[in-house]
Specification:
The complex is a heterotetramer, with 2 copies of chain A (about 80 residues) and 2 copies of chain C (about 160 residues). With about 80 residues, chain A is of the alpha+beta class. Chain A has a single domain, classed as Roll (Ubiquitin-like (UB roll)), CATH 3.10.20.30. In chain A, about 25% of the residues lie in helices and about 30% in strands. Chain A has a 5-stranded mixed sheet. Chain A starts with a strand and ends in a 6-residue tail after the last strand. The mean pLDDT of chain A is about 95. Chain C has about 160 residues and is α+β, with helices and mostly antiparallel strands. Chain C is about 30% helix and about 30% strand. Chain C is built from 4 helices and 8 strands; from the N terminus they run βαββαβββαββα. A 4-stranded mixed sheet of chain C has the order 1-4-6-2, sandwiched between helices. Chain C has a 4-stranded antiparallel sheet with strand order 5-3-7-8, with no helix packed on it. The longest helix of chain C has 18 residues. Chain C is globular and about 50 Å long. The two termini of chain C are about 30 Å apart. The mean pLDDT of chain C is about 90. Classes of the chains: A alpha+beta (about 80), C alpha+beta (about 160).
Chain lengths: ~80, ~80, ~160, ~160
Amino acid sequence: MNTVQLLYFARLRDVFGLHSETLTLPEGSAVADLIARLVARGGAFADELGGARVFRVAVNQEMARPDDPIPAGAEVAIFPPVTGG
Amino acid sequence: MNTVQLLYFARLRDVFGLHSETLTLPEGSAVADLIARLVARGGAFADELGGARVFRVAVNQEMARPDDPIPAGAEVAIFPPVTGG
Amino acid sequence: MARITIRVGPDDFDLGREYAALVADEADSGAVVAFVGRVRDLNLAQHVAVLELEHYPGMTEKALARIAADAAARWPLTAVTVVHRVGPLHPAEQIVLVLTASAHRHAAYDANAFIMDYLKTEAPFWKRESDGNTARWVDARDSDAEAMQRWLPDDAP
Amino acid sequence: MARITIRVGPDDFDLGREYAALVADEADSGAVVAFVGRVRDLNLAQHVAVLELEHYPGMTEKALARIAADAAARWPLTAVTVVHRVGPLHPAEQIVLVLTASAHRHAAYDANAFIMDYLKTEAPFWKRESDGNTARWVDARDSDAEAMQRWLPDDAP
């Protein structure tokens, strides 16, 4: 099992009521596996990550896609589309 | 006859050796008529205004075309393509 | 190689000073383009009292540096500066500065617009508007995603 | 209506000061784009000692005001400033400043590039380079005429 540090930002942090958490994931897990696990919690996680709403995932501070692998010890951030500038 | 004030700028002023001059033109003359008259002088005027070289004409400080009329008392400027900025 | 300067933080910036630092006395940069993004007074209700800019520390600097480097790889730039503020900002305050310098004006213009288009879609900043009573997160705009798309090759997915 | 400021003369300009005067404290201009054109150190021989900028007094101001007004008719601008210097200028000195302010960044970018493209082809300024011994008039560039063409409607002659 790999330990992963999860971070939430902006509106997602507010609706989850959570800044960060630590999870263990099976080795070889991809971004999509992590998301499926969070959606399985139901509630706000299912609403935000399991439906039509758009969100972004960064792995070790690089934008990631669903099939990107999550290395051991990774920092994985989940956040809404960005609105800076 | 109309009196017209002619101005030359930049390289054309240098090759003509002339900053300005006053001409009289028949009423109803257009820019092309003025140019034909200058070309008839021969020399640098024919070289610069009668051949393939590109030049611009402004009538009363507005860019003009060959068939634009020249009003009485007009200020007509002849100059090379611009190179500012 | 273009000189690249990236700064993220709460402090305001001075356009004149950043420009002077960018080009100094060098005579290679015939064209400098600056973009300044500022807080507008419209959106939530009629009156935005405060715009809160949140970011993802660490990743923001990395994302901006990558975008600037991509621009410098694509256009012949002599120097790039990107400054982005975070924290509470009020109407008419400055949010973001992008400076691009090049020998050629179209390179400076295009690189500048490219950096802003990518910054708007790839750099992890989020805006929350508040009028004193209500606060709401600003939604991402489709027009920003479309603006970014125009820089992709025609055969991109 | 956009506020339009045009200035032609020998004096140098200060980007920071012109920007501050353009937007002051108003919160309508969410996007400001600045272009600064500077004297480059290349062309005649390896070393331009001085670039002399001649103009057609009276017509220059009129041409710049018309170009700025055309830009303001085409894009939703809040303010435009154009400053163009004349007289002798040395490498790394500033030649021209164009500032465009709008609620929208693409309007500010496009209007700024439009003004520069037209200024380069329609405003009566001429450059003469001198290295101390030889002087020569700078030739107009086809690329500037082409850059201006892209703003014309597709069915223009």
